[in-house]
């Protein structure tokens, strides 16, 4: 009896355990089934536009993918940057292609010295002479000139550059001398008036003495400033000028007048072959950013979105010649037999106010035009009489103002971008 009772208890316990196991198993199975049948909802996580990490607490697959893509993008960009740097450094190492240079025979090829050849006008003259096939030596102290202006010739067999101040004598053998070394814009020549006078007197004597010693022809770059604030209009070469000998511009005006005087003295006394170019306002690429004269002032003010400032009433006139026209004139004058001064300039005259409006239109900005105090001794009218140049050199300016100004505006736009990239203002 007792045995039967124990057996019953054991059986009951067994059934109860089996029941429990079944319940647990079923519950587990249901849970796992749910897990398999329900696909995890992967929300599409978009990267916030500000570049910060998505504000989603779930670390989902999409988020991980986004992180990987972002890292790959950063890696790719840095590899591209390194490759670009490499390309730049390799390009710098390769020889530069020079502009096309004509071949001249030994007899036809000249050795030509250009003083001030790293300056605005000088560097364009260097381009022309080398491309004609001549050998050019530049002498410059880099006061206002820049090595960048002639950088494209460095290493060329027909080009040489000497860093020297022409106030010191120079001993070289040359066939022709273009003597251009002198600051040309008022802020530059007024910066050190004594030095400006020395450059135009002692420097010119040194160049004339060199021409005498080696039998070279020499062209002196004089200026329309020898006419001062002229009383006759337009100005022919026969006009003696109206210059204030002690005014703020006299270091330049009188310096150039002495240059002409010296040239004539050397021609008369030592039979040196001299040419004298009286250059009027010239503009074009490679003008100095701080030139301070009207063309660069107006263009830079317009490009910088500033007020275009006109000195005084703006009725004073100027004529503007594009630099390549001047170079044609200089080369023609050197080749001619004409030994008296020759005006080289564009006779088309503009009032400064008209010019300001024109620049504003070409730059395409809406800058205001304002006026500021008139400058002391500022010439009121400037217009060359170019009858002699037309007759003796068969020369006259060809480049229309709009074409020349557009090239100059493009140049200043690039210079401005470059200076901003390099951290200048
Ligand atoms: N640009 C014009 O509108 C203009 C008008 C009239 C006359 N000019 C004459 O043309 C010539 C060139 O003018 P630019 O506009 O090219 O001027 P610029 O200032 O650009 O060039 C003059 C060059 O002469 C160099 N220089 C100055 N003093 C020197 C010295 N003591 N020794 C050696 N080098 C020296 C400068 O570094 C510069 O490279 C000047 O003689 C100037 O008087 C120019």
From TrEMBL:
A single MF term (Gene Ontology): NAD+ binding
Gene Ontology cellular component terms for the protein in this record: Golgi cisterna membrane
Annotated metabolic or biological route of this protein: Nucleotide-sugar biosynthesis; UDP-alpha-D-xylose biosynthesis; UDP-alpha-D-xylose from UDP-alpha-D-glucuronate: step 1/1
EC number: 4.1.1.35
Listed GO biological process terms: D-xylose metabolic process
Predominant localisation class: Golgi
Lineage: Eukaryota, Metazoa, Ecdysozoa, Arthropoda, Hexapoda
Organism for this UniProt entry: Nezara viridula
Protein name: UDP-glucuronic acid decarboxylase 1
Cofactors named for this entry: NAD(+)
Enzyme class, broadest EC rank: lyase
SUPFAM superfamilies: NAD(P)-binding Rossmann-fold domains
Family that this chain belongs to: Belongs to the NAD(P)-dependent epimerase/dehydratase family. UDP-glucuronic acid decarboxylase subfamily.
Source domain of life: Eukaryota
Keyword Transmembrane attributed: yes
Domain NAD(P)-binding, residue spans: 113-407
Catalytic activity annotation: UDP-alpha-D-glucuronate + H(+) = UDP-alpha-D-xylose + CO2
Protein topology in the membrane: Single-pass type II membrane protein
Subcellular localization(s) per the UniProt record: Golgi apparatus, Golgi stack membrane
Keywords: Decarboxylase, Glycoprotein, Golgi apparatus, Lyase, Membrane, NAD, Signal-anchor, Transmembrane, Transmembrane helix
């Amino acid at each position: 009896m007792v045995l039967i009772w124990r057996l019953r208890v054991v059986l009951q316990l067994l059934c109860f355990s089996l029941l429990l196991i079944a319940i647990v198993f079923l519950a587990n199975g249901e849970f796992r089934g749910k897990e398999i049948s329900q696909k995890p909802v992967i929300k599409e996580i978009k990267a916030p536009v500000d570049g910060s990490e998505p504000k989603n607490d779930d670390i989902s697959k999409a988020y991980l993918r986004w992180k990987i893509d972002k890292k790959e993008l950063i890696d790719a960009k840095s590899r591209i940057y390194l490759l670009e740097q490499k390309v730049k450094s390799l390009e710098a190492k390769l020889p530069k292609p020079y502009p096309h240079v004509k071949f001249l025979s030994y007899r036809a090829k000249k050795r030509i010295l250009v003083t001030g050849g790293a300056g605005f006008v000088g560097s364009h003259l260097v381009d022309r002479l080398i491309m004609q096939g001549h050998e050019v030596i530049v002498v410059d102290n880099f006061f206002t000139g820049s090595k960048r202006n002639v950088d494209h010739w460095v290493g060329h067999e027909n080009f040489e550059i000497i860093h020297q101040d022409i106030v010191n004598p120079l001993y070289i053998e040359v066939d022709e001398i273009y003597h251009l070394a002198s600051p040309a814009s008022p802020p530059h020549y007024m910066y050190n008036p004594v030095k400006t006078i020395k450059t135009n007197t002692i420097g010119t004597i040194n160049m004339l003495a060199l021409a005498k010693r080696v039998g070279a022809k020499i062209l002196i770059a004089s200026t329309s400033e020898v006419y001062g604030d002229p009383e006759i209009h337009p100005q022919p070469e026969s006009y003696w000028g109206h210059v204030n000998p002690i005014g703020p511009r006299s270091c330049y005006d009188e310096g150039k007048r002495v240059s002409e005087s010296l040239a004539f003295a050397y021609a008369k006394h030592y039979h040196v072959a001299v040419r004298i170019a009286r250059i009027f306002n010239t503009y074009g690429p490679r003008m100095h950013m701080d030139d301070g004269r009207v063309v660069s002032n107006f263009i830079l003010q317009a490009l910088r979105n500033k007020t275009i400032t006109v000195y005084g009433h703006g009725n004073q006139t100027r004529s503007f010649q594009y630099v390549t026209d001047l170079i044609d004139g200089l080369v023609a004058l050197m080749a001619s037999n004409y030994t008296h001064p020759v005006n080289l300039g564009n006779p088309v005259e503009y009032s400064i106010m008209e010019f300001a409006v024109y620049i504003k239109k070409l730059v395409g900005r809406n800058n205001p035009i304002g006026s500021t105090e008139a400058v002391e001794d500022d010439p009121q009218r400037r217009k060359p009489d170019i009858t002699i140049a037309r007759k003796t050199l068969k020369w006259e300016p060809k480049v229309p103002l709009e074409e020349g100004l557009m090239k100059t505006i493009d140049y200043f736009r690039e210079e401005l971008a470059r200076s901003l990239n390099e951290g200048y203002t």
